[in-house]
Amino acid sequence: MGRMRRVLLAGVAFFAFAGIAAAADLPARMPVKAPPVAPLAWNWTGFYIGGYFGNSLAQSSATNAYRPGEVHVNDMGIAAGATVGYNFQFAPSWLIGIEGDFGILGTNREFRDFNDTSITVAVKTDWYGTLRGRFGYVTGPSLLYVTGGGAVAKIRETFGGDTGVLGVEETTTRWGWTVGAGIETKLARGWSTTAEYLYIDFGDNSFVGNPYGAAATSTFSNKAHVLKTGLNYKFGEGPFDLTALFASPLSSPARWSGFYAGVNAGLGISNVKVPQVMAPSFNGEENVNGLGFAGGGHIGYNYLAFSNWLVGVEGDFSYLGIDDVHGDWYDTSSGFGTKTDWYGTARVRVGTSTGPAYIYSTGGVAFAKLTNEFAGVTSSATKTGWTLGGGIETALDDRWSARVEYLYMDFGTNEVTSFGDVAQFQNRIQVVRGGLTYSFNTPTPVVARY
């Protein structure tokens, strides 16, 4: 639990750090009387390098030919590494490019199987890399893009046993594919910050082991979700050129103040764990992976507190379509499942504006309709928990904006009793979503002072 919190807080803290960096890089902009200034022409074409930091969530499943069921394995870790790429801007607001990155995923999960504690199941990812194309739309100092390509990782998989039962592990370099999307926004001519989500599928890997003294094939399927924020530098620009983002009404942080409403859509990802600590029959563990569509609406209010800093409140309510049930590896009648119908949050947002973009951290209360299943018995409840996250929002004009946002939600435990055994489901959900927002505020036009 302590490790998970450190990982989560590290990711949220980096959103806050990106905001502080943005505020430090930009000079204060005060309204002055002056003739209108032509907007700056933002050039995204060229080579760039950077670094990133964030969270990773690994979701794996394992089967063995000896039994018909499966074991789920999930873990949350720190993702960090370096990026290099090239962009070409054309037509004039479209962009294509290529990007490579290499880093750590930091996931390492090991436990004894719920129904047979002589079996240890584990998955560890050391490093990973991707090579992707990017295609996006340039709004001036911000870029909205989709991305996809190939992926590679070093993964160690274990399916083995105790004394007298030979265990097996295999370490391989795995190849797969990845898709994702993100927002990148300029902090200055040469510097930019990114918020990006990648879904990575490393496919299946099979190897022959003998968990019960006879040869039997184990097969692992490994997937990863990576949410990262980064800092990039594009060559050919002055590294200390802190020219304000652009001379138009959008260069005022006041553009982000006031009431707003919008819609959002993305993915809900579960990393539910079931330690069987209250069962007289079993004392192993099981995990429940899940993935589903998340979509709904949000409404909120921002207040420009001082300089470029804003504080605000936001509420949202959305459909959440996670629905996964699987039979335990050793005994398929001992099924485990998690289903979500909807979720909502009431949160505080704190962040800084570069003018055309708003970089923020957020946290508050979360609600969800959750159903957990154990050995044919289900338990449904409306659960209350807490949430932390962050995001980047970029202006499309003086009313509309687009965002990428990450939320981690912890709904505590839910107990399900079947034949005297009590399964404790630790329900944790992550949501990665994009959104479109309309501002009801009409800021007074200003001209930036350089």
UniProtKB/TrEMBL annotation:
Signal peptide: 1-23
Location of the protein in the cell: Cell outer membrane
Keywords, comma-separated and alphabetical: Cell outer membrane, Membrane, Signal
Any single Pfam family the record assigns to this protein: OMP_b-brl
Matching InterPro entries: Beta-barrel_OMP (IPR027385), OMP-like (IPR051692), OMP/PagP_B-barrel (IPR011250)
One cellular component term from this protein's GO annotations in UniProt: cell outer membrane
Positions of the Outer membrane protein beta-barrel domain: 14-235, 244-418
Main location: membrane
Annotated PANTHER family: BLL7405 PROTEIN
Family: Belongs to the Omp25/RopB family.
This protein's name: Outer membrane protein beta-barrel domain-containing protein
Organism, scientific name: Rhodoplanes roseus
Lineage of origin: Bacteria, Pseudomonadati, Pseudomonadota, Alphaproteobacteria, Hyphomicrobiales
